[in-house]
Amino acid sequence: MTAEIHTARCLCGKITLEATGPAKYMEYCHCKWCQQVSGSAFLPLIVFDRNNVKITSGALSYFQSSPNNQRGFCPDCGSTICFSSPRSFDIALGIMDNPEDFKAIRHIWTKSQISHVTIADNLPRFKESGS
Ligand SMILES: [Zn+2]
Ligand SMILES: [Zn+2]
To answer: Fewer CB within 10 Å: C terminus or N terminus of the chain?
Structure first.
């Protein structure tokens, strides 16, 4: 059986990456930091095992957003690439070449969800991290 390979790229194309194997899961994060880093109402993140993700071209820039966590972005076009923590390497859904391959399992940090964004799904919702 051939390995499952997911590819992604930033807006300018200088950063490309490849994730091998199935994602652990995907979630919609409504935390303020994800809102700021993405400029959007919430950020869909696909959670991968760090060892399964390889940067195939370019070099990410990182912003240390909390003591253990970093936000990765393209230094040229500014695309949000990832949330990197000791536990995992979470890739922003929007940079995936085939975003339809992923289905969210939950919403987290809904205590800061923007109220006029209507979300009509029945996924589990967590006021904070959910873990
Ligand atoms: Zn770029
Ligand atoms: Zn978040």
So the answer is: N
Total tally of structural domains belonging to the chain: 1
Instruction: Output the CA–CA distances (angstroms, integers) from residue 96 to 1, 9, 65, 66, in the order listed.
Output: 23, 7, 23, 25
Domain membership of residue 78 as a residue range: 5-112
Instruction: Read off the pTM.
Output: 0.94
Pairing of strands 104-108, 25-29: parallel
In a domain, 125, yes or no: no
- CATH number, residue 29: 2.170.150.70
Q: How far is the CA of 35 from the centre of ligand 2 (A)?
A: 7
Nearest ligand, CA 58: 1
Round to whole Å and give the CA distance between 127 and 112. 8
What 3-state class would DSSP assign to 26? strand
81 alpha carbon – ligand 2 mean position (Å): 13
